[in-house]
């Protein structure tokens, strides 16, 4: 499998984070992650609950996809969305690409296998296609790891995963201090590159540009969290 190292323009990173913060999608406070960690921030997919926000989200994902292809990633034939959050993401991205005269297939998995009709646990067809997984964030990387397995089992070729935000944390099963973050660990194990429109270090940069005491307080909490749970990138 061809390995791809893609970095996105800093303007794209910053614009996306400002979009997420201004629309209360990226929120600060006290939240518990799936891994059981106490996090000072949360990326809330539930806030993409109207057509305008979903439209702009699709624009960011499609722009990132096209940028990745321009910088060496294999051409994507099909988008794959892990159930359930990935489903609206692939739909909005596919529509955005269509508006840019780029037609693309998409597929997604079910939480439970369907026993009637077309049956199976996947909707759509990934067989023989270059598949890009689309998800919201990566922390432990469980849904992306599962998606890679599903795509391979169905005869597809997972060429990458694209997320809005890489939390850059170690996997919960890895207790070694400063081990690789989940995104790098998945790539090391599977050969599938993880691409992120933004990451926690980009967020730190955005907050550092703001001089208010409120922003500085958030910056300190994020840096403390990253010092405790952040992995090698």
Feature tags:
233 residues; alpha/beta; Rossmann fold; six-stranded mixed β-sheet; 7 helices; globular
Report on this model:
- By secondary structure, the chain is an alpha/beta fold.
- The protein has one domain: 3-Layer(aba) Sandwich (Rossmann fold), CATH 3.40.50.
- The protein has 7 helices and 8 strands.
- The protein has helices spanning 10-22, 51-70, 86-99, 142-153, 182-190, 200-208, 213-229; strands spanning 26-32, 38-43, 78-81, 105-114, 120-123, 130-138, 157-166, 194-199.
- The strands form 2 sheets. The protein has a 6-stranded mixed sheet with strand order 5-4-3-6-7-8, with helices on both faces. A two-stranded antiparallel sheet has the order 1-2.
- The chain is globular, with a radius of gyration of 17 Å.
- The two termini are 21 Å apart.
Offer a concise description of the structure.
The protein is α/β, with parallel strands linked by helices and 233 residues long. The chain is built from seven helices and eight strands; from the N terminus they run H-E-E-H-E-H-E-E-E-H-E-H-E-H-H.
Count of distinct strands:
8
Q: Describe the largest sheet.
A: 6 strands, mixed
Tell me roughly what share of residues is in helical segments.
40-55%
Distance from first to last alpha carbon: 21 Å
| Overall CATH architecture | 3-Layer(aba) Sandwich
SSE order: HEEHEHEEEHEHEHH
**Structural class, from helix and strand content?**
alpha/beta
Q: Report the CATH topology name.
A: Rossmann fold
Mean pLDDT: 86
Strand percentage, roughly?
Answer: 15-25%
State the low-pLDDT regions, or none.
none
| Dominant shape | globular
Strand order of the largest sheet: 5-4-3-6-7-8
Helix count from the secondary structure assignment: 7
Radius of gyration, in angstroms, nearest whole number: 17 Å
CATH class: Alpha Beta
What's the number of domains? 1
């Amino acid at each position: 499998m061809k390995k791809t190292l893609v970095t996105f323009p800093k303007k794209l990173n910053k614009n996306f984070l400002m979009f997420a913060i201004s629309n209360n999608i990226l929120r600060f406070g006290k939240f518990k992650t799936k891994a059981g960690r106490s996090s000072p921030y949360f990326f809330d997919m539930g806030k993409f609950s109207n057509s305008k926000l979903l439209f702009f989200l699709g624009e960011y994902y499609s722009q990132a996809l096209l940028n990745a292809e321009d910088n060496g990633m294999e051409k994507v034939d099909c988008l794959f969305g892990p159930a359930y959050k990935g489903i609206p993401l692939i739909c909005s991205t596919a529509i955005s690409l269509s508006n840019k005269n780029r037609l693309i297939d998409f597929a997604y998995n079910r939480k439970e296998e369907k026993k009637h009709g077309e049956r199976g646990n996947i909707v759509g067809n990934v067989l023989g296609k270059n598949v890009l997984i689309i998800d919201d964030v990566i922390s432990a990387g469980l849904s992306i790891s599962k998606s890679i397995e599903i795509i391979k089992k169905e005869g597809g070729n997972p060429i990458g995963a694209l997320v809005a935000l890489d939390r850059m944390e170690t996997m919960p099963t890895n207790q070694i201090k400063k081990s690789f973050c989940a995104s790098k660990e998945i790539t090391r194990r599977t050969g599938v590159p993880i691409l992120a429109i933004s990451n926690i270090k980009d967020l730190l940069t955005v907050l550092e540009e703001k001089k208010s005491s409120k922003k500085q307080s958030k910056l300190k909490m994020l840096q403390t969290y990253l010092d405790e749970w952040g992995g090698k990138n």
